[in-house]
Specification:
Largest sheet: 3 strands, antiparallel
Oligomer: single chain
Shape: globular
Strand content: 5-15%
Order of helices and strands: HEHHEEHHHEEHHEEHHHHH
Helix content: 40-55%
Length: 326
């Protein structure tokens, strides 16, 4: 066998293996969360759909090794038909006729628009070939651009609420960071402006909001403590220590509170995915154990379902009953 033929055979084998690995990505199955219409509900077999949580769940799965293509396309075809002329979205409720109708405005336009555009960007072929999607993307971009506040260099919640939220701006930054047309200088400027606006040097923590009253309110697990770890969820580069040290310090302070949070609220599965990404299998396994009876209950959001499927797709097992999860 000639050396040239050997190299060609090796290349062909590599391409075949690569194709096998891509095909082997487990599919995201949101059984009980996705209706026949394509709407994704907040809760299992629920009657309320908040596009923010659906988009967060889909992108979380996409970024952590699951194949979301079929689910994402079906959801996008449903949601694009419910976009308002100005590019924004509402939250939706299902009435007696099983028809989805707008029932509440979105919590925040900036983050929802950013997540919607990111989802469309995960399907570039469909986006370029679908005029309805493309029009939606362009309209969404104009709407998001309109929320930019030049005086601070960050994005406002909506045209009505003229304050900026830390986690929302991180999601906008993430959109730009993932874009194939990302401009390093623009991305760097936004990161620095987010840091300058929200980092509180005196307290060594990020503010949740530009609202003045936020600086004096007693910190809660959400949004305050979650906001501190949120930069690592989107790989935001400007944190005061290395990501590993920053993560470890947060877990030292809030791990027990997080793992017990599902007893009174939602269990924040996205933090279990972050733990796995940080090499902290122990915390991720503890989360699986502590939430074992919660799956698909009325305190189990679609983002928790996506988190559970990500962890179990890696064959992660729940912590032993005798393991310390404090």
């Amino acid at each position: 066998m000639s050396y040239k033929y050997f190299l060609r055979s090796l290349l062909m084998l590599g391409l075949m293996l690569q194709g096998t690995l891509v095909a082997a990505r487990p599919a995201l199955e949101l059984e009980g969360f996705m209706s026949d219409s394509g709407a994704i509900t907040i809760l299992h077999k629920g009657d309320t759909s908040d596009p923010y949580f659906a988009l967060q769940a889909l992108l979380l799965a996409h970024d952590n090794g699951l194949d979301i293509s079929a689910t994402a396309e079906k959801f996008a075809n449903w949601l694009v038909g419910h976009q308002k002329p100005d590019g924004t979205f509402d939250r939706f409720c299902q009435g007696a006729s099983k028809t989805w109708v707008s029932c509440k405005t979105a919590d925040a336009d900036d983050s929802l628009l950013a997540l919607w555009m990111r989802l469309l960007e995960t399907m570039p072929k469909q986006l370029s070939a679908n005029p309805v999607w493309l029009k939606s993307y362009i309209t969404s971009k104009k709407s998001l651009d309109h929320l930019y506040q030049p005086s601070r260099g960050v994005y406002m919640v909506s045209p009505v609420y003229l304050h900026g939220l830390f986690m929302d701006n991180l999601e906008v930054w993430s959109l730009k960071a993932h874009s194939k047309d990302a401009k390093p200088a623009e991305l760097d400027k936004l990161a620095k402006d987010i840091y300058a606006t929200f980092w509180q040097a005196a307290n060594q923590r990020f503010l949740v909001s530009t609202q003045l009253e936020q600086q004096t309110q007693k910190p809660q697990f959400y949004p305050d403590h979650v906001a501190q770890i949120f930069p690592l969820l989107v790989d935001f580069p400007l944190v005061p220590q290395t990501a590993k040290v920053y993560y470890r310090n947060w877990m030292r302070l809030h791990r027990a509170e997080w793992l017990a949070h599902g007893e009174t609220d939602y269990p924040w599965g996205v933090l279990a995915v972050l733990a796995l990404r940080q090499g902290d299998e122990s915390s991720a396994r503890c989360w699986l154990r502590e939430t074992a009876t919660m799956r698909r209950s009325n305190r189990w959001a679609v983002t928790d379902e996506a988190s559970f499927l990500i962890l179990t797709s890696r064959r992660l097992q729940a912590a032993d009953k005798n393991a310390s999860c404090k």
